[in-house]
Amino acid sequence: MKRFRFPLRPVAVLRAHHELKAREAFAAAVHIYVQAEAELAATRTRVARSEADLYASRRGRFDASVAAEAFIAYRAECAAEVAAERDMIAKRAVMNQRRADYLEAHRELEVVNRLEQKARAAHRLDTLREEQIELDDFAGRRGRTAQFSRS
Question: Which tens digits make up the pLDDT trace of 5-35?
Fold first, then answer.
């Protein structure tokens, strides 16, 4: 019985390494995207607080300089919200690209793994056939030897 040797083993090792790197890159992209979402949520909270302060300042006595400062602060928060949203959208696109890269690397690895499984199954079948032929030959020789000893 000869030992199984898969000729595409180096390809499988390289693809497994590539898949691992793609998985790590995808995990890092997910982490960065989640941080961007958290930053956007914090920015939206600040915008809502700034809006509430702006509306609350209108209830009392009107002071143009205080209202102007509050409005400038509100506009700065709105600009920060837009920037955070754009950043989050860009990071989502990067995350989706990393996901696609990981899925492609995983598919490539699976192709080689399936080829190896098929090759192992074929090797196992060949080995079993060879063993069966040897057993049949052994039984045939033993049967002929038994016939000659009776005569």
Answer: 899 999 999 999 999 999 999 999 999 999 9
Provide the CB-side half-sphere exposure for 63 (13 A, CA).
Answer: 8
What is the pTM assigned to this prediction? 0.75
Note whether 98 and 29 are within 8 A (CB). yes
CB-based contacts of 43: which residues, under 8 Å, 6+ apart?
77, 80, 81, 84
Residue by residue, DSSP assigns 67-116 as HHHHHHHHHHHHHHHHHHHHHHHHHHHHHHHHHHHHHHHHHHHHHHHHHH
- The tokens describing 30, both together, are 């997910």
Q: Are 108 and 17 in contact (CB under 8 A)?
A: no
CA angle 118, 112, 101 (to 5 degrees): 150
Say how many C-beta atoms besides its own lie within 10 A of residue 29's C-beta.
21
Structure tokens at 55: 């509306």
Q: Write the pLDDT tens digit of every residue in 29-75.
A: 999 999 999 999 999 999 999 998 888 877 778 788 888 888 999 99
CA separation for the pair 101, 104 (Å, rounded): 5
Other beta carbons within 10 Å of 24: 12
